[in-house]
Amino acid sequence: MKLLVKKTTFILFIMLGSSFLAQEKNILTGPQVKNQKPWQLKKVNTLIKVKSFVNKDTYGAKFKNKKIWNKTKTKSEIIVTTNNKRKELQGPRAKNKKVWNKY
Questions:
Q1: Domain contains 100
Q2: Which terminus of the chain has a smaller tally of CB atoms within 10 A, N or C?
Q3: Which pLDDT belongs to residue 9?
């Protein structure tokens, strides 16, 4: 009998604990998402890794017969970019911005 009470108490505790944790999240839903202002959202900087190299003969017989060990040196750079055009927009223009519109 004691074992049954311990198991039911444990299961009840797990169920109540999980329900409290599930309701604790701060996820925006409903009107909060609808009425948020896109120009006030915090954006994270984007890292882009670019490899740039000079390859003058990209076609023809020279390119076909080119050896891998004779390839020009490559260098990689990391560039931090932000979406500056989006930050310049204010008000309804920022909220209604479409990808295909250039402004």
A1: no
A2: N
A3: 93
